[in-house]
Amino acid sequence: MAINKKLVSLLFLLATVISSSSASFSDPDSDSDLVNELVSRRSNSESGVIHLDDHGISKFLISSPTPRPYSILVFFDATQLHSKTELRLQELRREFGLVSATFLANNNGSNLNKLFFCEIEFSRSQASFQRFGVNALPHIRLVSGSTSKLSDESGQMDQSDFARLAESMAEFVEQRTKLTVGPIQRPPFLSKAQISVIVALIVIATPFVIKRILKGETILHDRRLWLTGAIFIYFFSVAGTMHNIIRKMPMFLQDRNDPNKLVFFYQGSGMQLGAEGFAVGFLYTVVGLLLAFVTNVLVRVRNLNVQRLVMLVALFVSFWAVKKVVYLDNWKTGYGIHPYWPSSWR
Fold first, then answer.
1. Of 6, 149, 247, 344, which is least surrounded by CB within 10 A?
2. pTM of the entire structure?
3. How far apart are CA 169 and CA 116, in angstroms?
4. CB–CB of 217/227 below 8 Å?
């Protein structure tokens, strides 16, 4: 009996040691637990994008052994850079959410849990930015299940691919993961309720609009509207407004030598500021309005002295405006404009 008791005690002690050692060497979170937690976090997000911090990156990417049963597409964001419109971080973040929502809508079963869309913000995850080696934004990187080093840039999305927004992101995901994202499902511009209200208003207003059109009492019959619109289009055309919008030119710059001063005119043919274009557009518009006044209004005046006086003033102001435009062009480009006189006049 004593031998049996000692044998039982020894076996019990051995089982305790083995169980404790196996528990100490086992992973705190199994792969299934990590996937379940990611699924839970994704379900709590409106677009399916999971918000991660340094702890989440460590838990789902660093501490988890490879190969992992999932891949993570990370969008790197920085709230303090949202004011820089040239980076388009907020727009890219919305497009990233559209790709995530589209992926959730077009996939089910096991494929749904093979890829998770996540984002990390710089102010709360500076250590993660350093681990990934991210020094510039925008930045999107795919961390596959076999990736062991976060600094590996092989999963980085090229900067040139951001031009097509969500469509290029979806192509990037499909090429790298061999999963299907599907056509991007963008929300409609107007909801069904808004469309119903608009249609009802149109139906109610149609009889009244037809009545006013037949009487010629609509705003489109007002000549002042067309006159104002013509001047507006002329001004913005000669001011180079489309050039400023397309190239996103600022209205002015800060003087490098004196930060308290502003530069409204930039010397050089390769750049035109917004204020500079508006100044030239104003001068052109003055000449155009004077020409229209002389040819359409002044000819109706019966007093010849008044006609001559106004004509001289119009010519003087037009000459001054054109001279300023020529001077500005010469100052910017260095090219001079000289008058040409026929040889018979010399």
1. 344
2. 0.55
3. 14
4. no
